[in-house]
Amino acid sequence: MKVAVVGSGYVGLVAGAGFASSGNHVVCVDNDARKIDRLREGIIPIYEPGLDRLVVDNVKEGRIAFSTDTAAAVKASQVVFIAVGTPPEEDGSADLSYVLAVARDIANSMEDYKVVVLKSTVPVGTNEKVTAAMKALTKLPFDVVNNPEFLKEGAAIEDFMKPDRVVIGTRSERARDIMKELYEPFVRQGNPIVFMDEKSAEMTKYAANAMLATRITFMNEVASLCDLVGADVDMVRRGIGSDPRIGKSFLFPGVGFGGSCFPKDVMALSKTSKDFGYTMQILEAVHLVNEAQKHLLAKKIVARFGEDLRGLHFGMWGLAFKPNTDDMREAPSRVIIKDLLARGATITAYDPAATQTAKEVLGDSIVYVDKAWKAADKADALLIVTEWGEFRNPDFELLSTLLRRKIIFDGRNLYEPARIKALGFELFTIGRGTIRPE
User: Fold this and answer.
1) Distances in Å between the alpha carbon of 64 and those of 20, 51, 181, 184, 430?
2) What is the pLDDT of residue 172?
3) Active-site residue 28, yes or no?
4) What is the C-alpha separation between 144 and 131, in angstroms, rounded?
5) Of 56, 63, 57, whose CA–CA distance to 24 is shortest?
6) How many CB atoms lie within 10 A of CB 404?
7) What is the domain partition of the chain in residue ranges?
């Protein structure tokens, strides 16, 4: 099948490479000529494990190409995916201007029937808006389908190639058959292709992310209470996660969630509810609690050292909002850094993948290093902000010689308190209490 993907960012590039890997001929389109040139050279603009190899292999086999020519890609393709950004407006609503602009480009370029697939995360009713925008420009037949993505940054290739479900919103039998043919190679193990109406598919994406964000936020609230009453949130997590009605996923407390999806989608769904005269109070609370959670580590530091942090230097492990990505969007590290700098502290940070992205966001306000141990050198305390695998079992003997004071603020609960206590460190956790050496 011939497929066009308009928008060669995170979602579009993963989808394009994934479809090409199953034998389709794919053209990934973007209006950023420099990005397209780099992709043609095999340079991937984002950090996602396995994506570079997948793209390069499919380029060699002639199954994927990159272009700035939307019209040519549309004319040559049977299915056209829209995978452009929907950034949040000031009121929390999703900006659909890029989506609608691409829809108009498709309408002006098409010469026969097309299946137009909304892969971008869009609020309920967007399919109708796209359909209306296209009908105003063409009399040719087309169907607009909603096909939300459920990719986890850091595991996107696995998620795309072996999805636990594929959601397709359409009431057109013709579009349904085409989409089924396109996705069947990815669900050979029996995971479902779930067909539904367009509005339900649009809602499914937001509801899924809002539910996961709510679980994280709930555990962050439980962790705060555990600190007050003397309980261990890790024991609580294990206890409730063993209940099959609850499950084990997304129950790890920390310094708040970030990224391009959860914060934006929680706000967008909340805004949609208000547009219809209803307030989703749970989502209002999720947003407020998560914003407060991002300040928690700095508050623990202030409680330990005092409000005035001038003369104090902190080492930070992790800048990206989660491991296996370089994404700094809504990353808790940004808030923590801002809070500490405002009190006069200095910071040296290390992240295995996000240094360049962080520099674009934070500039030279902090020092960046290329090794974890360098960030800890001569620091008054070490801050764990992102749970990269290499931080889970560091050389504590080396750390004890590098740090000015043997203090760790573990924002991801990576370390077992009893072990850290035995090693002579002072440990501040999220919901597991404060551990001080005897």
Assistant:
1) 6, 13, 19, 19, 45
2) 97
3) no
4) 6
5) 63
6) 14
7) 2-196, 205-292, 294-435
CATH 3.40.462.20 fits 294-435, yes or no: no
Using CB atoms within 10 Å of the CB of residue 302, give its burial: 0 to 12 exposed, 13 to 18 middle, 19+ buried: middle
| 413 vs 416: CA distance, rounded Å | 8
* Residues forming a β-bridge with 46: none
Question: Could you tell me which of 146, 96, 98 has the C-alpha nearest to residue 118?
Answer: 146
Residue 127 identity: N
Name the CATH topology of 205-292. Rossmann fold (3.40.50)
**Residue range 274-311, pLDDT digits in tens:** 999 999 999 999 999 999 999 999 999 999 999 999 99
User: Which residue bears the tokens 């407020």?
Assistant: 288
Which one is catalytic: 3, 59, 261, 408?
A: 261
Closest by CA position to 376, among listed 316, 310, 304, 332: 316
Output the pTM of the full model: 0.92
Torsion of CA 116, 85, 11, 261, to 10 degrees: -120
434 pairs with which residues across the strands? 428
CATH architecture of the domain covering 2-196: 3-Layer(aba) Sandwich (3.40)
Other C-beta atoms lying within 10 Å of the C-beta of residue 312: 20
Same fold, 2-196 and 205-292: yes
Q: What are the pLDDT digits (tens) for 193-215?
A: 999 999 999 999 999 999 999 99
The residues that bridge with 407 in the sheet, in sequence order, are 426
Judge whether 94 and 121 are in contact, CB under 8 Å: yes
Q: Where are the alpha helices (DSSP H) in 294-354?
A: 296-305, 332-342
Dist CA 220 CA 291 (whole Å): 11
